[in-house]
C-alpha cells in the first residue's frame, strides 16, 4: 500500500484511491484506520495530480503555435489562446485537431 511516487503508475494510484474512497463511504474502517486511509488518499491524489500536470506540460509543449504562444485545444479542436486578449485572438486562430 505504501509504494513510492516513482514506482506507482497513474492507473494504480487511481485504482487504490477509488478503493479507499469506497471503503470510507461504506465506513469499513475504525476512526484510526479512516485517518490513515485519508492520509494515503491524499498522497495518492498528489501522485495523480503530479502525473497529470506533467502530461499537460508535455501536451502544451507539443501544441505551441508558430508565435511560441501556448494554444490549448479542446476535444473538438477548439483553439484557445492563453493571452489576456484571448477573447479576440482565439476567434482568429484556425481550429486545430490533435489527431
Given the C-alpha coordinates, what overall shape results?
rod-shaped
Class based on secondary structure composition and strand pairing = mainly alpha
Quaternary structure of the protein: single chain
Predict the CATH topology of the domain at 10-67.
Helix Hairpins
What is the count of helical runs?
A: 3
How are strands sequenced across the largest beta sheet?
1-2
Question: In what range is the share of β-strand residues?
Answer: 5-15%
Ends apart, CA distance between termini:
37 Å
Low-confidence parts: 81-99
Q: What do the pLDDT scores average to?
A: 76
Helix content: 55-70%
Major β-sheet annotation:
2 strands, antiparallel
- What's the architecture of the domain at 10-67, going by CATH? Orthogonal Bundle
DSSP, total strands: 2
Radius of gyration, rounded? 20 Å
- CATH level 1 class label of the domain at 10-67: Mainly Alpha
Report the order of strands and helices: HHEEH
Subunit structure: Heterooligomer composed of large and small subunits.
Region (Disordered): 69-99
EC number: 3.1.11.6
Catalytic activity: Exonucleolytic cleavage in either 5'- to 3'- or 3'- to 5'-direction to yield nucleoside 5'-phosphates
Amino acid at each position: 500500500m505504501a509504494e513510492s511516487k516513482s514506482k506507482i503508475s497513474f492507473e494504480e494510484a487511481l485504482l487504490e484511491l477509488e478503493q479507499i474512497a469506497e471503503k470510507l463511504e461504506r465506513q469499513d474502517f475504525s476512526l484510526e484506520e479512516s485517518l490513515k486511509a485519508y492520509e494515503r488518499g491524499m498522497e495518492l491524489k498528489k501522485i495523480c495530480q503530479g502525473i497529470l500536470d506533467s502530461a499537460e506540460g508535455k501536451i502544451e509543449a507539443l501544441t505551441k503555435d508558430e508565435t511560441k504562444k501556448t494554444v490549448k485545444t479542446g476535444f473538438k479542436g477548439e483553439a484557445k489562446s492563453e493571452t489576456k486578449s484571448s477573447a479576440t485572438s482565439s476567434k482568429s486562430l484556425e481550429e486545430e485537431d490533435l489527431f
